[in-house]
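Working notes for the structural subgroup meeting. M.R. asked for a predicted model of this chain before we commit to crystallization trials. I am recording the input and output together here so anyone reviewing the notebook later can reproduce the run.

Input as submitted:
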Amino acid sequence: MENRYEMACYSDLDINILKTTTLTEEEKEIIAALKATQKDRAYSIVIEELYKFNKNNYSTTDIAEIYKVSTRQIQKIFKELGINRGKVQAQTVSAINKDAEKLSRTYKNTLFEKLIENELSEASLEVQIRHQLDMSLKEALPNCEIIIGISSMEFSRDNINAPIIIIDNNFLYKYIVEIIKDGSNKKSNNKKKEQNKLSRAVYKGYTLFKLDILHYYNSKDEAAFKFEKEIKNRLLNILEDIVTEVKVGTSVTKLQ
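Returned structure, recorded in token form:
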């Protein structure tokens, strides 16, 4: 059966918009997560295009004409993706330069909140965790530079990990959140391996935290509820410790 979204007819302007619209790394992660959760939808193959058109303030009518579907269908898709934009919000977007950072944060939060309504894959859950770390730390420490890194194979080959760098004036704070997915760290014969991980983290100047995601996948609760209970609440405890350390000034390295 033919997929109508594969048959889209883009104008020269549309093609230029798609080619020249730059996506941040976080936006790329959002799009990847959306594609993963909506992979069975016919429109999943054009999620990135829909995102870019929306980012460039195309109306739902304009987008509907491109894909030869109804405006209502595009509105429904945007609602499923968490990019549903009403008149008031559209007017706000047109004045984005007035408060770009706040709008961007609200927009991304809406997308991520929509994603957690469904069971998340491991890759999507990792994206969510990084998002929560980034947003929460930037909100709690607005005067600091926050960098959430990618997984370091040098630190751990068994689990995903999220390195965190916080710069407060001339002071540097380093943390690693290890995302545990297989429960192997609880086995007695792995105590030496865990001690080695801790030693490597300390040697490189990092404070190590562990986040066990097994509870999320083992829980029979509704998806959004168990994300709040098993992931977000555990992350908040880690974040509280990090923020306290930065504000008090412990575990700090002075930059030259």
